[in-house]
Design a protein that fits this description.
By secondary structure, this protein is of the alpha+beta class. It has 16 helices and 23 strands. It starts with 38 loop residues before the first strand and ends in an 18-residue tail after the last strand. The model has no long low-confidence stretch (mean pLDDT 93).
Length: 628
């Protein structure tokens, strides 16, 4: 089909331009249905992407486009977890990228070098020489070094200003007018470029001078990632929509997903005022909202008489764009020693899971960032403890911890002894790891069994429901592992070892045949036995809890007379109607107020749940009877 928008020929000279629209492009991607897919929270380091904020990913393509190809050698198992979950086709992932505090934003600043100069020229009407004052503008680009704080970018851009009458050795004053920075910190931003060109098509549709802002990337080949149509006039509005460049590019919903912009509005006005000052008849001045700072032409293509763009400056509309610079990975860089990098990453993971030091506090909010699972990814012990604190604070999602890369059951038991204080039905503990192939490099890598769970727990829930235990050969058969690589090996008949791990409230895969392993238990970490010692029951409780919290919150400041409470009860009963005899044996729910609660306007929801009986142990009794 024809491409959207008006195609503008590259040159004004008579010529023929051919555009080929390839409408057969497709992407190798796995997409999920956002409306009913369970959600996983993942924090990780990555080669690119906006850091410190939570973004929900719905497909592998979306994840790779935002965060780049996972690099296991640099960033470990954590960066593979979101991809594994999304590749299942049954999960959404709430992603947060971490980055070293000394990593910097790649950026570029367009600087107008402005000179006021009186020249002698011939009047075209009288053919007489005359003195004319003109404004000469030469564009240059610079980058701000060591930009670690995104909030200081505008201040740094403005700090480059050296206004008239101050001039350099060549007589120029310095006015930065446009700044662009990558949304995330890191060297990846150095592959970004931006191109600013005149938008003649939009000029014909409104009364402003319009531009096209194109965001390009040379990560592989030079490609255009985004295009925006806007103006440099900060007050430009058409049909109740703002057109100013900062409002358009920085819009949270429809703006750039790659860069942020900063327009030095005061400097644009200063340059415009210098142009107006050159005019003998001020009434002939082109209005500010139609003034073309970039090309020095009127909207109909004529030169602005006393405003000259010098040819030896940087062309803002160069085809290959203006290159971003000064981005680096800091302590996460490939050239940093592994121990230093791992220590820096550990510190950032703790901050991220805690929602402190610039990381999105929404990670601690069950309403702003709803998820069903938080999974370990072979994190250091300090990070695991931060994850435990987060899970207990939110109390809406199951936390699945791993024991790391340990090879013997003795090591696993020692690890379990060290974390004995962690006992809660919202937390589960896994004790093993295995070797698998990196889905991108195909090299053999070690991963904990939480990687398997990220891959297969979402489709299990989508297919069989969260009430079905994720154990056994039918539901949790280990796949994707290198032959006999699961460590430590726990034989199905080794009841002594299995009992020690089980009593320590941890789960394990057991070997039931040659190179055949199944998840043998699904216990939570609480230190007493109850129905909530089973993960599937805890999944259902959390499921009902999340829905009831939303239900009750929506009814605050409603009237709560007896007839209203009866209506709340009926509505909630209908909400869980299909849970009876499916997710649980039975439940009852009611909304009520005792005298003390009614005096204080407290609505009280009572939910009683009875779970189905599980068969976890078996007894086979064989009688050998007398023959006579």
């Amino acid at each position: 089909m024809p491409q959207a928008g008006q195609i503008v020929p590259s040159y004004t000279v008579p010529h023929v331009m051919t555009v080929i629209n390839d409408n057969t492009v497709f992407e190798e991607s796995v997409n999920v249905n956002p409306s009913n897919s369970p959600r996983l929270l993942c924090v990780f380091a990555s080669t690119k992407g906006e850091d410190g904020v939570i973004k929900y990913m719905n497909s592998t393509t979306e994840y790779l486009a935002e965060y780049g190809t996972p690099n296991f050698n640099l960033y470990g198992q954590a960066c593979l977890m979101p991809y594994a979950a999304l590749f299942s086709g049954n999960a959404r992932v709430a992603c947060m990228r971490i980055m070293a505090p000394d990593a910097t934003y790649s950026n570029i600043v367009v600087v107008a070098k402005v000179k006021r100069e009186t020249i002698i020229e011939v009047d075209p009407e009288t053919n007489i020489e005359r003195e004319v004052e003109k404004v000469f503008v030469k564009y240059e680009t610079v980058s701000i070094d060591k930009l670690t704080d995104k909030n200081s970018f505008g201040i740094e851009v403005e700090a480059l200003t050296v206004p008239f009458p101050d001039v350099d050795d060549e007589g120029y004053s310095t006015y930065p007018i446009l700044g662009f920075r990558s949304k995330g910190r890191g060297a990846y931003g150095n592959s970004l470029r931006v191109r600013v060109s005149s938008d003649a098509n939009s000029d014909a549709e409104n009364n402003y001078k319009n531009y096209m802002f194109e965001v390009l990337s040379s990560e592989t080949t030079l490609v255009r990632k985004e295009l925006f149509r806007c103006t440099l006039d900060e007050s430009a509005v058409v049909s109740h929509t703002t057109l100013s460049s900062d409002d358009v590019l920085n819009d949270v919903e429809v703006g750039s997903g790659v860069i942020e912009s900063y327009t030095a509005v005061g400097n644009l006005h200063a340059i415009y005022d210098m142009y107006v000052d050159t005019l003998v008849d001020k009434s002939t001045a082109i209005a500010y909202d139609q003034f073309d700072f970039i090309t020095g032409l009127t909207k109909d293509g004529h030169a602005i008489g006393t405003y000259v763009i010098e040819a030896d400056g940087v062309a803002l509309d160069r085809i290959d764009g203006m290159v971003f610079e000064a981005g680096n990975d800091g302590a996460f860089g490939a050239d940093v020693e592994a121990e230093t990098r791992e220590a820096a990453m550990t510190a950032e993971y703790v901050k991220a899971f805690s929602g402190t030091d610039g990381y999105d506090k929404a990670i601690r909010s069950k309403r702003r960032t709803p998820v069903e699972w938080i999974m370990d990814a072979n994190f250091p012990q300090e990070v695991k403890l931060a994850m435990v604190e987060l899970a207990l604070h939110r109390y809406d999602a199951r936390l699945i911890l791993d024991a790391g890369i340990l090879s013997t059951t003795t090591q696993c038991e020692s690890w379990l002894d060290n974390i004995k204080p962690i006992h809660d039905p919202i937390i589960s503990k896994e004790t093993q790891h295995y070797m698998t192939r990196d889905p991108f490099t195909y090299k053999v890598i070690p991963v904990t069994t939480t990687y398997f769970m990220a891959q297969y727990l979402p489709p299990h829930v989508a297919t069989f429901g969260n009430q079905t235990p994720f154990v056994g050969e039918n539901y949790a058969l280990l796949t994707g592992h290198i032959k006999n690589s699961l460590k430590p090996v726990i034989d199905a008949d080794d009841l002594v070892t299995k009992e020690r791990i089980y009593q320590a409230r941890a789960n394990f895969f057991e070997c039931i045949a040659e190179n055949t392993f199944i998840r043998g238990t699904q216990g939570t970490s609480q230190n007493y036995w109850s129905d909530l010692s089973e993960e599937n029951n805890m999944e259902v409780v959390l499921d009902m809890k999340r829905q009831l919290e939303t239900f009750v919150s929506a009814r605050l400041y409603n009237f709560a007379e007896p007839e209203d409470r009866k209506r709340f009860t009926d509505d909630a009963d209908r909400m869980f109607a299909d849970y009876r005899n499916k997710k649980c044996r039975d439940f009852s729910i009611r909304f009520d107020m005792n005298k003390w609660e009614e005096e204080r306007s407290i609505i009280h929801c009572y939910l009683e749940v009875t779970f189905k009986t599980l068969a976890k142990r078996g007894i086979i009794e064989i009688d050998i009877n007398k023959r006579v």
